[in-house]
Write a structure and sequence with these properties.
By secondary structure, this protein is α+β, with helices and mostly antiparallel strands. 43% of the residues lie in helices and 37% in strands. The chain is built from four helices and nine strands, in the order βαββββαββββαα. A nine-stranded antiparallel beta sheet has the order 2-3-4-5-1-6-7-8-9, with helices on one face. A hairpin with a 2-residue loop joins strand 7 and strand 8. Helix 1 runs antiparallel to helix 2 and helix 3 runs antiparallel to helix 4. The chain is elongated, with a radius of gyration of 22 Å. It starts with 5 loop residues before the first strand and ends with a helix.
Length: 199
């Protein structure tokens, strides 16, 4: 990571599962950063004590995942900047990272955990240092559409699972073998879909 004098993260959006979130906390602590957190059923509230300030990161808890969404966050502590960028990559998150050097500014656009464009601004000059070429396949388009619907689909899927479990329970109480078989098959399908969505 190219660390300058000052960094700022814009349009930061990262989804953490519990394992990745704990790994990020551990990485911050190992880097010598003091962190405190408080967790409620709806939110994970993280206070990061940097060399010059305290950053307040609030993550919404949605369907077992934690969403960190920040419109703009200055990061002056290089340890925090390094850990944050590495976990944006690991969690396949999005961000625009503005790095200020003595003589120039660099804008790095990250989508799904990888840099897609790096622009350097020096005075009135603007130069594209890197731009990822895109060869989009139909499979990638379908995957992108599914990903966009992910937030909407998971809650519905959970309701369908609950309904099918209730149906199976009623069938077991009534000793209805046909309905029991149908419900078990439907639950297998829903479980497969849930595993694919959460992968």
């Amino acid at each position: 990571m190219n660390l300058g004098i000052e960094l700022e993260y814009f349009n930061l959006a990262v989804w953490f599962n519990r394992k990745t979130l704990h790994a990020m906390l551990q990485a911050l602590v190992e880097a010598g950063v003091s962190v405190k957190w408080k967790e409620t059923p709806e939110q994970f509230h993280l206070l990061v004590n940097t060399t010059d300030d305290q950053s307040d990161w609030k993550m919404q808890r949605v369907n077992g995942s934690y969403k960190l969404h920040l419109a703009g966050i200055p990061v002056h502590d290089k340890r925090v900047a390094f850990v944050l960028e590495s976990f944006i990559e690991k969690a396949k998150g999005h961000a625009i990272i503005k790095t200020i050097f003595d003589d120039r500014v660099q804008m790095k656009h990250i989508r799904y955990g990888e840099a897609i464009r790096i622009v350097e601004i020096k005075g009135a000059e603007k130069k594209v240092i890197y731009e990822k070429s895109f060869n989009v396949t139909m499979d990638q388009v379908i995957a992108a559409l599914k990903r966009r619907d992910l937030e909407e689909r998971i809650p519905v899927l959970r309701l369908e699972l609950d309904y099918e479990l209730a149906t199976l329970f009623d069938a077991m109480m009534a000793k209805d073998n046909v309905q029991m078989k149908q419900s078990k098959e439907r639950l297998k399908q829903l479980r497969r879909e849930m595993l694919l969505l959460e992968a």
